Amino acid sequence: MIVRRDVFQAIADPTRRRIISRIAGGAMNLNAVADSFDMSRQAVANHIKILTECGLVTIRQQGRERFCEAKLDQLAEVTDWVEESKKLWAGRFNALDNFLAEIQAKPAENGNQ
Fold this sequence. Notes:
Elements: H1 7-12, H2 14-24, E1 28-29, H3 30-35, H4 41-53, E2 57-62, E3 65-70, H5 76-112
Antiparallel strand pairs: 1-3, 2-3
Helix pairs in contact: 2-4
């Protein structure tokens, strides 16, 4: 069974978000990335594998070492989704504000009659 991963799965985990943050400033070798976390190297490698499958990280071989590099352009999908969600919720909250203003105005109208 092949599991298709996407950028949302990658950033859903706080460890993977921290890995992205660590390597966003520049490429790091795999051991340096693993040393940054209080977990086994295998656990970090599994997180990096998911990030690689999602296209957020690439692994580059340089001599005997392997380096992780962030590919943050993939996060544009998340940014687009967040912007659309913000528009949707802003519209809903505006409608709620209008509804609440109407409700608050009605007792004042009834009291004046």
